[in-house]
Design a protein that fits this description.
The complex is a heterodimer. By secondary structure, chain A is of the alpha/beta class. Chain A has 20 helices and eleven strands. Chain A has two domains: 206 residues, 3-Layer(aba) Sandwich (D-Maltodextrin-Binding Protein, domain 2), CATH 3.40.190; 208 residues, Periplasmic binding protein-like II (D-Maltodextrin-Binding Protein, domain 2, 3-Layer(aba) Sandwich). The chains are: A alpha/beta, B mainly alpha.
């Protein structure tokens, strides 16, 4: 009788543990790729992954960048947060600040060994002795122009600020503007101003000790150059975000703009002559020898403390970074999302996309530009929490507005930026 | 008194200016939604469309979840409106007619809830709703909309109640009508324009509410138009035709509702109410 009971108990426990083992790990992924075609592509990939991995099931819940800074902390505090969360570098500092992200050191090391991360894409996520997110795609600002417009004006693609200004002056005729640079207190202006700062030797806004080093001659010179070019921009550019600049370029009203990509808009809303679309590195200061740019490496954080879920999430991320899958992930927005791995940059699944194929030379230039990308607050190898607030409050753009809109000198505008950033960093 | 020619000129000029200020944005959005992309993004805008296409509407209804957002918005706005009116009417009547301790103070106090910055209570409300399992439900949006619309609705409704001659109410009291009957059978028909105003106010506020809808709703299938639409548009690249088609499609239900149903609603209720 006793033996029988023990046998039944043993079998029951085996069956229960088998049932528990068979229970799939369910993961929730929050990303901010809300446009319907991106959601659809993500779902295709998830369906494929879920089918191939019955023990790990991933579902997506698209969110918006506009609200995620408030929504994610609230969700984690309430215990309803996701297991994986898309991020940009300054958002990672916010989530790390509330202790909701777990390091991914081993996975990052494995993926780097297998696929080779572009150093500039993973560096913004490596600090305090850990890697805090796995880079997923990169975006880098380039200068866009029309080959026909430059040819007609008899000018070469500008490489320096003075060449750019001269080209913009020549292109400014017949109601057209040689350049379209924003001066809005918004992230786009942060990005375009910083693109010039990188090319003027003013990439670092922090000192090693965390104090602000914004106010320096290189920043003032970058502001002055931006101001000169901004005068050649349309008068409404003081309220522009990315879309307005793109529309100005697509309608052939702006000769040159700084933008992550115009390919999609150019293809769907303009004349779409691929051969006429030109892209080049952001021009640099006359004293510099090569161009850099601002780049945003978007990444995926692990935000679950459950070890089984962490293991499942790592299986998913490893699967996503496989070249056969990764190219299809990137081409959810062809011509905008750039690879963060060396083998991703060569993946057939990326280059076979019809839009990428059509604009191959432009995409190749974008990929090359992205390798020289930097991001304000993430250049010294140390990351300070105040960068989240400096970025969120658009202090760089606000400083530029002091010059462009309020008529202050570049030196005074930069001085204002230094004081405002120092005030934020001191809190 | 007959208007002089200069008076008429000033009057009609003013009307035209007001009409242009109100109507031009609508004209711009609606005509833009039927232009081809190149005409939309042209630096020199065209006041009258030089092209015609329905491609933006096709994309809106075939490639996006806009129809689901539309249904969600209509449901949330209608429930919010009905509940707000149902609560505001008796509450306003109580503040208007009944005597109870602290009535005046409470009446002033409820408006504080309306004046409260919503962003301040966003996180606490999220935490509370998470505890009671209301995150990612349309019910949560209805509760929020009612909570924020009710104080002002009570104030509006009480103002309308105060315009009803006291003799009408007294006649009902003499006939032995209880408070419920007086409110529903006598007062409600007499302040029908007020009820309609509260309904319109609540519907529009619920229809356009963005902040809570963006934070409390997690899944795409439960999003309302403002939030779902913001996602469709995207951040770095804007499909201007889709944007204009969506704005047109989001506006039309409200315009139809209040241009026709609203007028019928008001006239139907007020007809024969006062003899």
């Amino acid at each position: 009788m006793k033996v029988g009971l023990l046998t039944i108990a043993g079998l029951t426990s085996i069956l229960m543990s088998s049932a528990a083992f068979a229970e799939p790990v369910s993961l929730t992924l929050w990303h901010m790729e809300q446009p319907p075609h991106r959601v659809q592509r993500m779902q295709e990939l998830l369906d494929e992954f879920n089918k191939a991995h019955p023990d790990v099931q991933v579902k997506q819940e698209p969110q918006s960048w506009g609200e995620i800074y408030a929504k994610a902390p609230a969700a984690f505090a309430a215990g309803t947060g996701p297991d994986m969360l898309f991020a940009i570098p300054d958002f990672t500092t916010v989530i790390k600040g509330i202790d909701a992200v777990v390091p991914v050191d081993d996975l990052a090391k494995d993926l780097d060994a297998k696929h080779g991360f572009v150093p500039a894409t993973i560096a913004p996520y490596q600090y305090d002795g850990h890697t805090w997110a796995i880079p997923a795609y990169n975006m880098a600002i380039s200068m866009w122009y029309r080959n026909s417009a430059l040819k007609e004006a008899g000018i070469e693609v500008p490489k320096t600020w003075s060449e750019w200004k001269a080209a913009a002056e020549k292109l400014s005729k017949d109601g057209k503007y040689g350049v379209g640079l924003p001066a809005n207190k918004q992230l786009y202006t942060d990005q375009t101003v910083y693109a010039l700062m990188v090319n003027g030797g003013a990439a670092d806004i922090y000192n090693e000790d965390g104090s602000i080093s914004f106010d320096k001659p290189e920043t003032v010179a970058s502001f002055e150059a931006y101001g000169e070019l901004q005068k050649l921009s349309p008068p409404d550019s003081t309220s522009w975000t990315w879309g307005e600049a793109e529309a100005c370029f697509a309608s052939a009203s702006c000769g040159t703009i700084l933008q992550f990509s115009v390919i999609n808009t150019y293809e769907t809303q303009a004349e779409a002559d691929a051969a006429d679309l030109g892209v080049a590195p952001v021009p640099h200061a006359d004293g510099q020898s090569e161009s850099g740019t601002i780049s945003y490496s978007n990444a995926i954080m692990l935000t679950t403390k459950d070890e089984a879920k962490q293991a499942g999430a790592k299986v998913f991320l490893a699967w996503l970074m496989e070249p056969a899958n990764y190219g299809r992930f990137l081409t959810m927005e062809p011509g905008l999302f750039l690879p963060v791995t060396n083998d991703g940059a060569e993946a057939e699944s990326f280059w076979s996309d019809p839009i990428v194929t059509k604009y191959k030379s432009q995409v190749e230039t974008m990929v090359a530009n992205a390798k020289n990308g930097k991001l304000f607050g993430f250049t010294t190898g140390k990351v300070f929490p105040s960068i989240g607030a400096i970025s969120g409050q658009n202090v760089i753009a606000e400083s530029l507005q002091k010059m462009v809109v309020d008529g202050q000198s570049a030196a005074d505008a930069v001085k204002f930026g230094q004081e405002k950033m120092s005030e934020i960093a001191g809190k | 008194m007959k208007r002089t020619l200069p008076q008429s000129f000033v009057l009609y000029s003013g009307l035209v200016v007001v009409l242009l200020i109100i109507g031009l944005p609508f004209w711009w959005v609606i005509t833009g939604s039927i232009k081809v992309p190149r005409e939309i993004i042209a630096r020199v805008p065209t006041m009258f469309p030089q092209s015609f296409t329905l491609q933006h509407f096709e994309k809106l209804f075939q490639s996006t979840d806009f129809p689901a957002y539309l249904v969600n918005s209509i449901g949330v706005a209608l429930f919010s409106t009905v509940i707000t009116v149902a609560l505001a009417l008796p509450a306003a009547y109580a503040f208007f007619r009944m005597r109870f301790p602290g009535r005046a103070a409470l009446y002033r106090l409820i408006l504080l809830a309306y004046a409260f910055p919503t962003i301040v209570v966003l996180i606490p409300i999220y935490g509370f709703f998470a505890k009671v399992g209301l995150i990612d439900t349309r019910t949560s949006l209805v509760i929020i909309n009612v909570a924020f619309a009710l104080p002002f609705s009570i104030w509006m409704m009480r103002s309308f109640l105060s315009t009803v001659p006291r003799e009408i109410e007294e006649a009902a009291v003499i006939d032995g009508a209880p408070a419920r009957v007086i409110l529903l059978r006598i007062m409600a028909p007499l302040i029908a324009p007020g009820i309609a105003s509260v309904a319109i106010f609540t519907f529009i506020a619920s229809w356009t509410e963005y902040l809570f809808a963006s934070v409390l709703i997690v899944s795409d299938a439960r999003r309302t138009i403002p939030v779902g639409f913001a996602g469709i548009i995207g951040q770095y690249q804007i499909d201007w035709g889709l944007l204009l088609a969506g704005a047109t499609a989001a506006t039309i239900p409200v315009v139809i509702l209040f241009a026709f149903v609203g007028r019928w609603f008001v006239s139907g209720l007020t007809e024969g109410a006062v003899k």
